[in-house]
Amino acid sequence: MAVISQNGAIVFFHMNQLGDLLFSLPAIEAMRRRYSANRFISIAPASLAPLLAGTGLVDEVMDKPTSFSGRIALIKNLRSRNCAAAILFSESPDSLIIAAASIPQRIGFATASLNMLLTDKVSRYGAPSIANNANMAVHLEAQEIRPDYVSLVEPDSDGLIIAGEWLKANSVAPQNVVVLSPGASARRVGKRWNDDKWIILAKMLQQEGRTPVFIGAPREHADLQKFASFIKGSLVYNTQPGIHSLVGLLGQSRLFVGIDSGAMHLAAALNVPVIALFGQTDPAQVGPRPLGHHIIIKRDTVNDITIEDVWDAIQKRLV
What we know:
Blueprint: E1 9-13, H1 18-34, E2 40-44, H2 49-54, E3 60-63, H3 68-79, E4 83-88, H4 93-102, E5 105-109, E6 120-122, H5 130-139, H6 157-169, E7 177-181, H7 195-207, E8 211-214, H8 221-229, E9 235-236, H9 243-250, E10 255-259, H10 262-269, E11 274-278, H11 283-286, E12 295-298, H12 307-318
Parallel strand pairs: 1-2, 1-4, 2-3, 4-5, 5-6, 7-8, 7-10, 8-9, 10-11, 11-12
């Protein structure tokens, strides 16, 4: 167990992925109660900073630097802030070096490659998860850590307006929207469901009067547009880049169907029913929370999941 001084800021170093950031929120919420006198600062990728700032759990969000000069500038900035402790959800060497160069107390996972730079080491089991981050919070005397992230993220007015205008422009009623998240990028090839299955599923939804809306990162939109081109009435959500516009769409959607991804966790955090397709990864550790509120379809590989498997799950949820 460790205690953080009340004299100084607590700095959180976040991982780069959306799901991992959402996994950190219950721990931060519990630590907010335990260390109410401290100022909370988060260091996160610029693309996720608006989401984190909108939670109200931290007082300030700084962009995670992507260059050497940016890292030096961040070290100087933190040194001037009277920081009491760094909490490292991230295990990256850059995060540990920045923390070691600027903050006296550093709490992180023992599995980090530069764990010798930590002053307090916490065990980590398996993949990054809510449970592992909860262990970190317990180590720091936080209590009553929730096992999920529901309600910790809410759509902001700008995101709702952007999504609402897009839905209106495409003559789509929110209650008919079924969001499809194939994870089209090559980086997720091991988690991907067969492209033809997505196309067939979207056609089945459209024939039943639903509006399938494909989502993905901007670099995936060309692939997603190919999916949509096969199905009359399906759409690709391609508004201006920004996490708040995606939150705005998901927050108004009827159902989410997708692979293990950050978007899946974001939908679950917004209390949208999720049908999650899992292969080798373990939903008990990294599935949408709370697990009992969603339908998880798991096979040895994602492509072992049939269209009938997913369609049956959709019927249960929509009914």
